[in-house]
Amino acid sequence: MIQRLSLLLLGCLAASFLYAQTGKVYDNLSMTSKILDSQRKFAIYLPPDYETSQRSYPVLYLLHGAGDDQTGWVQFGEVLRITDEAIREGKATPMIIVMPDADTGQRGYFNDITGKWRYEDFFFEELMPYVEQKYRIKGQKRFRAVAGLSMGGGGSFMYALHHPELFSSACPLSAYVGPLSVEQMEAGLKRRDISYAAADLQPYYERHNAVSLVENLPADDIKSVRWYIDCGDDDFLYEGNSLIHIAMRKKEIPHEYRVRQGGHTWTYWREALPVVLGFVSDAFHQY
Length: 287
Description:
- The protein contains eleven helices and eight strands.
- It is α/β, with parallel strands linked by helices.
- The longest helix has 19 residues, at about 1-20.
């Protein structure tokens, strides 16, 4: 009887220990960028068993929106609580989540039209190799995903469309898909007093408008990425997301397109994150 009680107690303690395990978030890490000639900050989520295992993990690059930095998904998106819960409930596989800062020096995830500020080059040539070597990350397409909100949703679209060979899935949330016309892009550049060569305008627009990319890239390249697109019915960015959905339907590109009740808010994105974690996990698991 005593032996049975002891085993039961040990079982309860073990279950409590496993349930109490949490991941860890570090939100003030940095690395040196030669491309941007600066120290670049990033945050990272490490899953609950990272320190006790020897395994490598899939990775999700999670991009913040305009006005936030690498702490946005940590502070307002509650990435630690939500991801721990999704893993504990078996809705997501343990993964590493990398959250870079794209609001220092110049705001945004792309190279600028002059080629002087090369954030996208930094992301692929410096940040990604750095974190995937420093942390136990599986460095294959199958185990890599990208997601983000608003400006970061636009980054998710562009990164996965520019490099479909690198990402198994992409989840743009309430995404800014880029200017919807060359004229709109030109007006934005003038408003920000950015000088540019006239010959560069059209090519830059075509590379930084997600609708144009979907219409012009080979369908098989786009199909090699699993797509989850989510935008609220009261979101001011609804038009661009609707146009992406239509463009993908016309090219018969499989994708999940969701319009839920809500606007351009953290409440909306916190509700989206568990779904995103489950969606990318399906790809990691070879659905």
